[in-house]
Amino acid sequence: MEKPERGRFITFEGTDGAGKSTQGAFVERMLGEHGVECIRTREPGGSPMGEAIRSLLLDRDNLPATPATELLLVFAARAQHLAELIEPCLARGTWVLCDRFTDATYAYQGAAGGLGFDAVSVVENWVQDDLRPDLTLVFDVPVDVGRARTEHRGGEADRFESLNDSAKEKIRNAYLELAARFPSRIEVIDATQSMESVNEAVAGVIRGRLARWRHA
Predict the structure, then answer these.
(1) What is the pLDDT of residues 76-97, one digit of tens each?
(2) What would the DSSP string read from start to end of 46-115?
(3) What's the rounded Cα separation, in Å, for the pair 11 and 36?
(4) Which letter does DSSP use for residue 156 in this model?
(5) Which pTM value belongs to this model?
């Protein structure tokens, strides 16, 4: 039997309130219209173990965790996510759309947590080997815009949503730095635009990648 073509791995990143989850659903619908089988997932999470770790990480009432503890917990969840869902799906040709992945770890634990990019890179290489997303969409909004959107959405803020503006500025800048380092993988989308304009920008990127990948 002929081995199926490996699926593509697309990740969605951005500060809180940037609209990445909404765009993940949009891309899922768009790919479905193009006949692409895909699955949506999230980090931390994506497996029973990962979801348990997610609850531990996001709960503001838990004991305080150092950035190093957060880093190791995030990658523990990621290792299980890769083994149980991401790698098997990609191997059988299913595309994986993931709400946050390792770029978030660089931004949150590396930049805002003060560990630096090098510390994250060491664990990334160990856990992921050479696996990296085929495409990452970073939805960029100023910190005050993201905060206003999150507050308007309502509900209790989790541990990371509750970070102060200085930390969130570091997170935003880290995403932009990563985009500058990896321009062939990371596309920055101006998420201050209307939903229709953001959808149009995302659709343009996806159409371009589909054309490129199908001729690769």
Answers:
(1) 999 999 999 999 999 999 999 9
(2) SSHHHHHHHHHHH-TTSPP--HHHHHHHHHHHHHHHIIIIIHHHHHTT-EEEEES-HHHHIIIIIIITS-
(3) 16
(4) -
(5) 0.94
